[in-house]
Design brief:
The protein has 268 residues and is an alpha/beta fold. The protein has seven helices and ten strands. The chain starts with 10 loop residues before the first strand and ends with a helix. Belongs to the ABC transporter superfamily.
Length: 268
Amino acid sequence: MTSAKTAAPTISVDGVGRNFTVSGQTLVAIEKIDLDIQQNEFVSIVGTSGCGKSTLLNMIGGLDEPTSGEIRIEGKPVDGPGRDRGFVFQTYSLFEWMTVEKNIRFALEKSSFARAEKDELVAHFIQAVGLSGFEKAYPKQLSGGMKQRVAIARALVYKPSILLMDEPFGALDAQTRGMMQELLLKIWEDHKVTVVFITHDVDEAIFLADRVIVLASRPGRIKKDMRIELDRPRSYEVLTDPKFAAYKREVLTDIREETLKALSAGQG
């Protein structure tokens, strides 16, 4: 039997770079990133502002293209968005004129699922994100955390194998953010998707992930790839674990080093 360590990666980033042209000048946003992510793995990516975290995520999602190198999903080159990948952004991007139920169902419009199966999927994910009873509510009637639950349900309802999340809880208050983190872990454990999660919050990154990737300041490169050896399932008690504190100290030291480099280079 093939072990998890030798299995072909679900996501493979091979020598990827991304340049932009700004005012006639070439800006190197990302440079020579190599990264493999295995099936069902939860990977958090952190780093200084402008280090290319969202750029990398967008390229994995097919919303942007590398200038050099290649990204593959299940061995196939990424040539655009696909239904194997679900996206959740910091902004909720819900249709204000649609109910919770219809916002989630919208993701299934072009699917081949039968109507009864669509009904079942929508009902399942409404329950999974804790919105039972709010099926007929409109976004203006929901809190920020509830809106983000709708966005997560919509990203998962068509059964993608990969969930890409760009600061999904960044606009939430601390209490709601903590509840959403625990909800996300439950959904991940129940549905076994591969997650790539962008955040500026080091506690959040460590609490959620199997691995934390620290990107260097621009041009973005992998400064550290740290495996998080904390037992699962996790509760917030793990934040008091000495191992958690050691991980946090190491990541914060790396980010501080990169922040100082960026400031000295005039990037901050």
